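pinned: reference chain
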Amino acid sequence: MRNGQSSSTDQNTKNKGLQVSSYFRTRVAAFTMTLIVIAGQAWIAYAINLNFVWILPLISGILLSVSILAYSGSHRKPSRSARALSIAVVVLLPLINLLCMGWFIYDMLNPATITVSHELLLAGFALWVVNIGVFSLAYWELDTGGPEIRALGLPTVFRNKNYPDFVFPQQTSGDPQLAPENWTPGFIDYLYLSITTATSFSPAALSPYTHMAKMMAGAEALVSLFILGLIVTRAMSL
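pinned: its structure tokens
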């Protein structure tokens, strides 16, 4: 009897270890990127003299902390509230980026501003880099219902069926030498997607399938093009 209980306990411990491992494997890189984005947005706001600079990292940090706590229970299928918090974070970060971009334009066009020219140029470049991080987080969080859904093969929270928003080459290849049978994209895959969309203005080596995916990729391409145009304009005026 004790042996049976011991085996059952060992199995439960093993399963919990796998769940925790899956949780950190799917979330740690994105949490790190979120912190980098928050720090970058705070520096941009400071560089362009955004008066309420301290509010931006405070709001993002609170939402990020709450979303981490919401996911720190079973590490399996997230609840609706946990998913809503995670989505709120990736929605808030682009909005803050748009606010910083608007203030950047104001600072660039206003002759009364005291921002040093090279600092404003660096702020524009940082804005472009942060935009890549923001959209990589959005792709990673929203594709196919979230990272836990993809990693553990669970049903989605807000959808009836698990249709992918982005289709990667590894998901369409039937050759086991090219990709494992149960391959799922990780955060680096979405970071690569964001970088290629921001530089070539179109996704590379994969296809946005759903309307949401196409709108997101299109929005990143337009925002990236606009920011690069602002940087070039500022550089020419130095």
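why pinned: The chain has a mean pLDDT of 75. Residues 2-236 form one domain.
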